[in-house]
Design goal:
With 330 residues, the chain is α+β, with helices and mostly antiparallel strands. It has seven helices and 14 strands. Strands 1, 4, 5, 6, 7, 8, 11, 12, 13 and 14 form a ten-stranded mixed sheet that branches.
Amino acid sequence: MRLLWSAAVIAAAASTASAFAPVSNGAALTRSGVAMSAVATADVKAKQDASIEKLKAKDASSAALSKDDLNVVFEDEHIVVVSKPSGVLTVPGKDESNPSLNQAVFDRFGSESGRMDKMVVHRLGMDTSGLVVFARTNAALRGMNSLFRTRKVTRKYEALVCGHVAQDSGSVDLPLMRDYECPPFMRVSTDDHQRALIGLDAEVVGKKMLESPKDSLTTYEVVSREDMDGNDVSRLTLTSISGRTHQLNVHCAAIGHPIVGDTVYGFEGEAAANGGLDESALPEDKASAELQQAIASASAGKPMCVHAKSISFRHPVTKEDLSFECSAPF
């Protein structure tokens, strides 16, 4: 039996900024008619700056990876597919001195353009392990960018989540937005939180903060229901149809089953709890706070349990259908 978990199921998760109500005297009305104060630009900016400093420090802790350390799954003259370990940045970010997978791949294979940034066609988060494709030629770069842009790349992830997911398979269809309360992280978009953005200065908080909600769809299948140190967990195959930032993390949290080891969207994480939804909006099979706490304690200091297990696409130059897979380390 499949379950569709969507904004139609969760009344708290409204979809678009077009649903804004009129605003007067610096306040917006919630659906219950209770006045909601406008968000102060300075407050959001202060939270952003504090979080960004933390993220910079985390990026600087990226594990060093040499060209000889690479786990190469496939290579030809146009593309390279490698398996990234957890704890390594895909790209160095603004600080080019940060160790990264991109640098190691460039050092080993080089690129037609002579630039490492011209090899990047997609990314995995620092805490996520799994398959990453890099372009070696300009033709491959153009082709891979087109494939990702038109959603002709299929990526499947394996994850351990807190609790036993009751349904064997299902979909999570919940729009995402930047969270002004916990910037720069993501949350499920609601009408109230979209209304609260009115009046924020884009020049101060950035245009991304004010973007319209992004439709986001994740499908899942339960591989197994397991026990981890005496605690219930489920092993899922996740497919990110829309590929939004932190989509899998938010969606798993929003159905009450955060990813094991997720210190941002999981138990007492830096982002909003439950993907930003109220506890009352979660399904009956949600992992209890007690179970999440026990799992967080058991997994403390260990990598987050999400892995980009497989990727399939048509070769950007030869047009050969390709599919690669690598086992999860957990």
